[in-house]
Amino acid sequence: MTRDPKQSNRLGVRALQFVHGGTESLIVRELQAGARTLDELSQALPTISREVLGEHLKRLTREGWLNAKADTPTGTSPSGYGTHRETMPQLPPGAGSRVFAILSDEPTRRILLRVGQAPGDVRQLQADLDTSEATVRTTLARLLYQQFITQQGTGSPNRNFDAPFELTPSGRGLAVIAFMLARIEWAALKADGAPPRHRLREYLQLLTPEAVVPRALNGQCRLVERYPAAPSQTVSLRIEHASITVQAGAGAARPDVQVSGLPLAWDGALLHANTRELLLTGDRALFDVVLRALADAR
Fold first, then answer.
1. Is the Cβ–Cβ distance between 140 and 149 less than 8 Å?
2. Could you give the angle at which helices 23-33 and 169-188 cross, rounded to 10 degrees?
3. Model confidence pLDDT, tens digit, residues 187-242
4. pTM for the whole thing?
5. In whole angstroms, what separates CA 121 from the centre of its chain?
C-alpha cells in the first residue's frame, strides 16, 4: 500500500501544530504509554497540577485528539476529569495516535533524527547509533514503507540497503516533531544543562535543507543558545543564493546579526515567531527573513 504524500504532509502539519502546546503533547504521550486514570497521569507528570491536567484533557477531547471516555464510574463528573479513579479519554485512530505510535519507538526516533542530520547507509547508522544491524534494517524497512525516508540515487529501495538514506519531506516533518518533543520533555522535567543531542544546531540542520529565502539576500547570522548550567552553543548561518546553510565553524568574525537566548526563547521564536525573549543586535530584517524561511520549511 502506498501512502498518500498529501495525507503525510497533513499529518505532519497537524501534529506539529499540536506539539506547539507542549503540555498536551506530554499528556498524549502518557496516554499512549497506557495511563488510564488521573492519578496515573499526575504521577507521570508531577510538575503539572491536577487542575491543569483536567483543563488540557477537556481541550484535547473538544479538539478531537482524544475520544470521550467510554465509561464514567459512579459518582464522578462526566466532564470534570477531577476524581482520582475516573477513566481518561482514549486516543482515537487519528493523527495524534499515528504520530505518537510512530515516535514512541526509540529506534525510529533515533534513526529519523540521525538521518535528518546527514544521509547515512546501514553501517554508518549502526555505528553512530550503537545498535544492532538487525534493528537498523528493520526500522529502515518500516520507514521506507511509510515513505518517511528514501534512498539516494535509487528509483526504488535497494534490496541490500547499500545506498545512503535521506528523509522525505513528510519524514523531515516527523523528525522535527520528534526533536521538539524531546526538547519539550527536557524543559518540562527541568533538566540541568543542555538537552543532549537536541540543541539548536541539530534543529537547524533539520530545517535548512528545505528552507528557501524569498529574495536574493547575502549575509551571516550568528545564533547563540544559552543553557542554565552548561556552556552556550553558537551556530552560524550563511544566507546566499536564496538558501540557508549551517556552517561548520564559528563563521564570520562580525556577522550581520547576532541573536541569543535560552532554549525556551528559541523554541518560542522558531515555533511561534515570538522573538521578545531573544537578545538581537544587528540586522533585524535579515533575521526576520531567516525566521520566516525556517517556519515555512517545517
1. yes
2. 100
3. 766 666 666 667 888 889 888 888 888 777 889 999 999 987 788 899 999 998 88
4. 0.63
5. 23
